[in-house]
Amino acid sequence: AQRVTQPEKLLSVFKGAPVELKCNYSYSGSPELFWYVQYSRQRLQLLLRHISRESIKGFTADLNKGETSFHLKKPFAQEEDSAMYYCALSGESGGSNYKLTFGKGTLLTVNP
Amino acid sequence: DTGVSQDPRHKITKRGQNVTFRCDPISEHNRLYWYRQTLGQGPEFLTYFQNEAQLEKSRLLSDRFSAERPKGSFSTLEIQRTEQGDSAMYLCASSSGSFGENIQYFGAGTRLSVL
To answer: Does residue B36 carry a pLDDT above 60?
Structure first.
């Protein structure tokens, strides 16, 4: 079974502080990992995916297969980063398991 | 192209009634997905289509639920004999279908309230 765990429902930091949103997963194989973000009154949108190895809006995430984790990090949080963040996984890139399994989400609040 | 479009945005119905939702994916996206999201949870997979073929259904999708994508373009999700437990946000997503490509673009959702 594939499962994604986000241990923190709520995370509150001050502007300029580092932020780390935790994500652990369970999957028999090599999954593809994603972070999706939902800003207030907006639709769910992709923030980043592990295979692209990009930094988006200052966020990075490294896949740690040994710890089965895909934590999202940003060194200096901004107020506009306040949103709901969802970690998600699907099957191997190029495979046939396309469905996304989501965690329950972490609501990040960046205080001024 | 305005992205994935869902209609209606909100639906209020009485228990026992049938409801139908529509999703229009991004043009030329071959894969279309339906998810359901309840309060405090992440989206949960319901079903997906590759063109007009429904390739996978979750066990969450009871016999009262049916989804179609008749011409491989838009899709409909019908719920028969609605129950209060069906109250949720129903999300549609689409992806290009290119090999190795699984970036899913989501619609704004249809919020269903069953009274």
So the answer is: yes
